[in-house]
Structures are given as C-alpha cells and as structure tokens.
C-alpha cells in the first residue's frame, strides 16, 4: 500500500513537471533591414506563437509571414511576393532548446543561450543566440535579438534595391508566455 | 511660342508621372473591413478544411478576406478565438466583444494569414465584427 502511494506520488510528480508548457499566440517579432538615408525597411508581427516547455527547456516559435505588417503597403507586397514568397512558404519557424534552463532560476532576469533550427523561406539553418528570460508573476517574459543574412535562406535581393536593404537583417523577439 | 508649348507639355508629363509614381510607391494598404469577402463560411466548415488538408486549405484561403460565422470561445485583449481553434487579431480600431457575447454566435470578417500547426489553430488578422 505504501509502495503504491509512493509510486502514485512519483508519477503524479512526473506528470506535473512533464509537459508543463507556457505559451503565447500574440508574440511579437520585429525585423529591420534598413539602410541609413533610405526609407526604413522594417515590419512587425504581433501574432507569433511561441511555446516553452519548462521541464525540458524546449522552445518552438512560429511566425506566419503574412502577419508581418509594414507601414508601406508596397514594401509589404514586395516582401511577401518577391522575397519571402509567402504563398509558397507561409511560415517562419524556430525549434530549439534553451541550454541549462530551469524554471526555478528565472525569478530574476537570466541570460541563457538558445540553439536550434531556424526555418525561413523553406530553408533551415542552425542558429545560436542569447536569450533573456524572466518570470514575472504568472508570465514568463522571453526576449532575444539576433541577425540573419537573407542569402543564408536563399532570399535574393536584386541589385536595383541592394543599396536600400541591409545585408544583415536584425530580428527581435518578445514573448509574454502564460501557462497553458 | 512653339518652344513654350513643348516645355509645357514636358512639364505636365513630368508632373503626371511624378504623381503616378508617388501614388504607386505610397499606395494604401488593403482595407479588409470594406473588402468584399472571397468566402463566407461557417467556422466549423472552415476549420474542417484545414484539418483535412492544411496545404489545400492554405492555398484556398491564404491572404483572402473571409467572413466567418461561429461561436465565440474566448476574448484575450485585442484577440478573440472562435470555436476554440480559430484565432482572430482584431483590427486596430476595433472594440473587442463584451464577455456577455461569449458562447454566442458572432460574425467576423478578417484576412487569413495561415495555419499554426503548433497550436492547431487557423490565424486571421485585421478582424472586424459584423453586426
């Protein structure tokens, strides 16, 4: 009887810590590839999904490319049609792991490294960057900044506009995750 | 006299092409609220299309203006969920529905931005509620 109780407690504990997920549907992704003296090339997506498994540190992010909004409508059209080809590749995803993540450590701001596969324009590349995680009451705030080169994802920038679009695109992610 | 006329014509042509060029570069965004919907569907049929074949449904609905009828399952700030699996980001100036509308049938117009296979939800943005 005692053994059974211990066993039950044990499995109960596992079930609780296992698959504990925090998520958002309205995460923010910003990207900027502006060049000084030209019109800013930037957009943001406020409908990004992100899921963090707090028991394993696994993180999954999915941004729908059509969800990136530009101030300039023509720029948005070109972004979708010529560069990201969002009819063919509607998603941009990241699947990775936060190294050494532990939910008990994030009471105050903590910096981690995150590694994983970034898929943009149907092309996958391994990336590694620093990520800041902080627990704020019931929400876990996750933020990161990194740069990518369009060429790494087979995105060609025609020579006519090459001067106006930076060779490195800065991406910023900000997610407020809540328990699922 | 003839010279003056030519100069005038050239000036008009330059001015016109400048205006056309400007209007092309700084054209307005789509106005989903005033667009005629490409599809008018029941939420349950809409989600079924994605469950049957994500690829086909994406090709059919992506970037299209869609009018959807379904039961409001949740409200979260500026976004709402219909039939548990259809996510709408409301248009900037749109007032979210009131909690009293939860579990009632609503009509929404929005643009489909794709399928989220992590949460198994369809996402739409620039949504406006129809009376």
UniProtKB/TrEMBL annotation, chain A:
PANTHER family: PROTEIN YCEI. This is YceI-like domain-containing protein. SUPFAM superfamilies: YceI-like. Residues 21-178 form the Lipid/polyisoprenoid-binding YceI-like domain. It comes from the Bacteria. Transmembrane segments: none annotated. It holds the Pfam family YceI. SMART domains: YceI. InterPro entries: Lipid/polyisoprenoid-bd_YceI, TTHA0802/YceI-like_sf. It comes from Dokdonia pacifica.
UniProtKB/TrEMBL annotation, chain B:
Pfam families: tRNA_anti-like (PF12869). It comes from the Bacteria. InterPro entries: Protein_unknown_function_OB. This is tRNA_anti-like.
